[in-house]
Amino acid sequence: xxxxxxxxxxxxxxxxxxxxxxxxxxxxxxxxxxxxxxxxxxxxxxxxxxx
Length: 51
Known about the structure:
By secondary structure, the protein is mostly helical. Helix content is 63%, strand content 0%. The protein has one helix spanning 14-45.
């Protein structure tokens, strides 16, 4: 059975890890905006208006 030696594992540079964090965060913000816009559109189509 193969084992992973902790001395062989190298972490990525900090800027790559930060880049992935920002990419995932911005993707989740965009996804939330899309869902909110679709809900707003559906509510508007159902006649739920604020005025």
